[in-house]
Design goal:
- The complex is a heterodimer of chains A (718) and B (183).
- Chain A is of the alpha+beta class.
- Chain A has 5 domains: 140 residues, no CATH class; 158 residues, Beta-Lactamase (2-Layer Sandwich); 103 residues, PAS domain (Beta-Lactamase), CATH 3.30.450; 70 residues; 140 residues, Histidine kinase-like ATPase, C-terminal domain (Heat Shock Protein 90, 2-Layer Sandwich).
- Chain A is 55% helix and 17% strand.
- In chain A, a hairpin with a 4-residue loop joins strand 4 and strand 5.
- The two termini of chain A are 90 Å apart.
- Chain B is an alpha+beta fold and 183 residues long.
- Chain B has 2 domains: 30 residues; 151 residues, Immunoglobulin-like, CATH 2.60.40.
- A 6-stranded antiparallel sheet of chain B has the order 6-5-4-3-8-9. A 3-stranded antiparallel sheet of chain B has the order 1-2-7.
- In chain B, a hairpin with a 3-residue loop joins strand 1 and strand 2.
- Classes of the chains: A alpha+beta (718), B alpha+beta (183).
- Chains A and B meet through helix 2, helix 3, helix 4, helix 8 and helix 9 of A and helix 1 and helix 2 of B.
Chain lengths: 718, 183
């Protein structure tokens, strides 16, 4: 869920406040609102809409805002707030002061005072009017004046009468009009009278028409005058009009008019009291809003100018974080931010150089590593394909390297891994290698060579040649230790032994074979010639027969020796196994205990049939000789993969365990008359065929298996 | 306010200003008695200011000078374009009080006639009502055309010719319109 921070909600909160303020200052429908009020409303609504729009955009904004925008917003809010708070305080204080001031200005005592002053002024005027009317009341039916307007009075008498009245009443001017508004007589103080009178006013005509006295105030160049109109009433109707002018005292008039003007101004202000208050509020609000607007714009410009390098820096850092080290901030003002930007550019440049150096070193290391690995692969492949066992032991006696051949030759177990202690791991039949290694470490020479004969359960004896060499630290590797090379020289030793025996056989055959025939012939001649002459024929026969028999045995022995010495190469040809089996069955038909499975699958075998026949006869002879009555000898064939297996089993006493490993050795025989060459020759024949002759089990049954390859493509078929 | 970089922000601000000013103008369209009389030669109109009479009477009785500026205009109605103005008349009626004499001087700028009255009701009637007032010659209008007659009445308290900026905090204009056509 997205977390709404106060900064995100601040524009909406400010907008809410402005909308509340808008409702608060919204003009009353009944009142006459000035244009300024609506301008303020417009400003408030406009600012509120802007803030709402910005607030909604902030709330809907899901991605990270552009770098520097938050700082810019905070600066703008801070600057506007710094101006807004004092402005609001000033506005509140000023409003309170105006409110208090207006209460003082429009105090009820002032109101009463002005009312009384105006009443005084009005009373003065009323007094003047009432005095005029009361005075004029005496002359409404004045006989002289009526006679004058009727044309019955002499002008001089009339003039004297008017002067008397004017002087008696203290009026400044007195005019007499007839019913036709013609001026009849004038009496005027301090100046000559004129008969060119101004037309009567509406009030004068109204007074004459209605027969009612009237007064009015007239302002002239000499000041203000009170003018009174008194209709002259005759017997039946109004006959004329008396117009009276009284000049008002200038000082009193001036004060009265001042009172009137002040009263008017005061009332005008009082009527506009609410309007003045509202006007003041709106003006202050307008000024505040304008200040906020201007401050906001200035703050925005200032913040944008201030945060632009920070934003560039943040964007550049983002690019550096993403791996782009080619970023350079172009503009750098001459201030702390500019210094920061320049430092960043230097850092970026140095970082780029370092990365390039690292990449170059990495490339060189990779190439060296590849070369090293290649050499290692070559070495490992060489060691893996090497038939010779190789083992590397460090100076502390721990195995560092060993190949598969050494495992195969020495039948090493799975615990033989790099890191194992060599001396400790060499136990049992391998103890000789521990001694060999110890001798190598402590000898003075650099090389050591020994031959060992090891006995393994399945492979029998293995003749190995061990060679050791001390390795000195050289080159960059700094490795010092011992190199052990193990070779299986069993075949080589066997071949050397066979070759030695062959030479012995040849010499024996050559030296012994030649005298045997004359000895045998001489013994037979003695037997034939002197048999009748001897006393004890039986003894004679026994002796001669013994000589002949031993000579024959020696001849057979010499023949075997000759065979072993001159073993011919097998002449391979396809042979049906069934044919060979039937031959064996016929050959050993005299021995009922021999069972040949001729019904086995008749397979085709590539071999030299004479030599194979020789092997089979040898094995069957040995088996027949080892069995007693009731015991069986079995000959059968099986197919085992690509090999053809000839199995010969017997239920005889078998081979003793201590001679098990020697049955295929030359001149080893358990029979008194045996040459000990039969199985040796048979194994050699098998090997010449690319097969093997094995002793599967020593007793019950005594089981020999001859394995010959079915495919003889690599053999020379004749 | 940092949205000013966006054009839409300015449009929103302008919209708010327009709404407020529309409200201000709409407040001036108060109902008022208004009728048009089409004579054989002249088109007359009768109108009455239906503002705050209590306030007006208080101003008159307090001796404050009050003026009513009447603006009468006739325009031919045009669709999809501004109306074509045919006549535009402006006159004022002014009442000046004499508190000492308790009289009111009535002045009509159109006729130049002045007279004095001691009745505030008469002064109020003089200010707030016109009857059978000739607006324009009928010959200027065409038969069948649609016209609109607009009467705007502006009340001004105090002496005439005050500073122009005084209107920024006082807007007392009432306006009424009526369409008519020559039968």
């Amino acid at each position: 869920m997205k977390r709404f921070s106060l900064l995100r909600l601040l524009p909406l909160l400010m907008a809410s406040g402005m909308l509340a303020l808008t409702l608060f200052v919204w003009p009353d429908e009944a009142a006459d609102a000035g244009l300024l009020a609506w301008v303020n409303i417009a400003l408030l609504l406009g600012l509120s809409l802007l803030l709402i729009r910005y607030g909604i955009r902030l709330l809907r904004e899901r991605s990270e805002p552009p770098p520097g925008s938050r700082l810019r917003a905070k600066l703008v809010i801070a600057l506007v707030g710094m101006l807004l708070v004092p402005s609001m305080v000033i506005q509140i204080v000023a409003s309170q002061m105006v409110e208090r001031g207006m209460d003082v200005w429009f105090d009820v005592r002032v109101d009463t005072l002005l009312d009384r002053a105006l009443n005084l002024a009005q009373g003065f005027y009323a007094r003047v009017e009432s005095d005029m009317k009361r005075s004029m009341l005496e002359y409404l039916s004045d006989a002289a004046l009526l006679a004058a307007v009727e044309g019955r009075l002499d002008y001089r008498l009339l003039n004297a009468r008017l002067n008397d009245i004017r002087m008696h009443e203290g009026w400044q001017k007195l005019q007499l009009f007839d019913i036709n508004e013609r001026l009849i007589a004038v009496s005027q103080a301090d100046e000559l009278s004129t008969f060119q009178a101004a037309p009567l006013s509406e009030n004068a005509r109204l007074s004459m028409r209605l027969g009612r006295m009237a007064t009015e105030l007239v302002s002239g160049k000499d000041g203000e005058m009170a003018i009174g109109y008194a209709p002259l009433v005759g017997a039946t109707s109004v006959e004329g009009l008396l117009r009276v002018e009284v000049k008002l005292p200038p000082g009193v008039i001036q004060n009265a008019r001042s009172v009137e003007a002040d009263y008017r101004s005061y009332r005008q202000l009082e009527l506009n009291r609410q309007a003045i208050r509202e006007m003041f509020t709106h003006v202050m609000l307008f000024v505040t809003l304008i200040v906020m607007l201007v401050a906001g714009m200035v703050a925005l410009l200032f913040a944008r100018r201030l945060t632009a390098p920070i934003g560039d820096l943040a964007r550049a850092l983002q690019r550096v974080t993403e791996g782009d080290l080619d970023v350079v901030i172009p503009e750098a003002p001459q201030d702390e931010l500019g210094s920061l930007v320049r430092s960043f550019n230097k850092m970026s440049d140095r970082l780029r150089q370092n990365v390039q150096a690292i990449e170059k070193a990495q490339q060189q290391t990779s190439e060296a590593l590849a070369s090293s690995r290649q050499r290692q692969y070559v070495l490992e492949a060489l060691l893996a394909n090497l038939q010779t066992g190789v083992m590397l032991v460090d100076g502390e006696g721990r195995v560092r390297l060993l190949n598969q051949s050494v495992r195969d030759i020495l039948h090493l177990s799975g615990k033989w891994m790099p890191g194992i202690g060599f001396a400790g791991a060499c136990k049992g039949r391998l103890q000789v290698f521990a001694e060999f290694f110890d001798e190598l470490r402590h000898q003075k020479g650099e090389h050591l060579q020994r031959e060992f004969e090891l006995h393994f359960k399945h492979d029998g004896r293995v003749h190995v040649l061990a060679r050791g060499a001390r390795l000195k630290a050289a080159g960059s590797s700094g490795f010092s230790g011992y190199l052990l090379v193990i070779d299986d020289i069993s075949e080589l030793a066997e071949a050397q032994r066979s070759r030695a025996w062959a030479e012995v056989a040849q010499r024996l055959a050559h030296e012994i074979k030649n005298p045997l025939t004359p000895i045998k012939l001489a013994a037979e001649r003695l037997q034939r010639r002197f048999r009748g002459q001897v006393d004890d024929v039986e003894v004679f026969d026994t002796c001669t027969q013994a000589v002949i028999g031993q000579v024959e045995r020696l001849q057979r022995l010499i023949a075997d020796f000759s065979t072993l010495a001159r073993m011919p190469k097998p002449r391979l040809r396809p042979v049906q196994t069934g044919e060979l089996l039937r031959e064996m069955q016929e050959l050993f038909s005299a021995y009922p205990q021999v069972h040949v499975e001729t019904d086995s699958a008749d397979m085709r075998c590539v071999c030299d049939p004479d030599q194979i026949r020789q092997i089979l006869i040898n094995l069957l002879d040995n088996a027949v000789a080892a069995t007693a009555a009731g015991q069986q000898v079995r000959l059968y064939i099986r197919r085992g993969g690509e090999m053809l297996e000839w199995h010969v089993e017997d239920d005889g006493e078998g081979i003793a365990g201590d001679v098990e490993s020697q049955v295929f050795d030359s001149y080893f025989s358990t029979k008194p008359s045996g040459s000990g060459l039969g199985l040796s020759i048979a194994r050699r024949i098998a090997e010449d065929h690319g097969g093997v002759l094995e002793l599967v089990s020593c007793r019950r049954p005594t089981h020999f298996c001859l394995r010959l390859p079915l495919d003889a493509t690599n053999m020379e078929v004749q | 306010m940092w949205c000013f970089k966006r054009g839409s922000g300015l449009w929103a601000f302008a919209g708010a200003v327009w709404i407020a000013l529309y409200a201000a103008v709409g407040d001036a369209r108060a109902a008022a008695g208004f009728s048009i009389e089409i004579g054989p030669q002249v088109v007359y109109c009768a109108a009455q200011w239906n503002g705050d009479h209590t306030s007006l009477r208080r101003s008159l009785e307090a001796g404050i000078e009050v003026s009513m500026v009447w603006r009468i205009s006739v325009a031919r109605v045009r669709n999809y374009w501004l109306n074509d103005e045919i006549a535009d008349i402006e006159f004022s009626r002014h009442v000046r009080a004499d508190l000492l004499a308790r009289t009111w001087l009535l002045e009509d700028s159109a006729s130049g006639i002045t007279r004095t009255t001691s009745s505030p009701d008469e002064a109020m009637a003089f200010l707030t009502r016109i009857q059978h007032y000739p607006v324009l010659d009928r010959a200027l209008l065409s038969d069948g055309e649609l016209y609109v007659l607009t009467v705007a009445i502006e009340r001004q308290d105090g002496a005439m010719g005050e500073a122009w900026w005084s209107r920024f905090w006082k807007q007392t204009t009432l306006q009424m319109q009526q369409e008519f056509s020559i039968p």
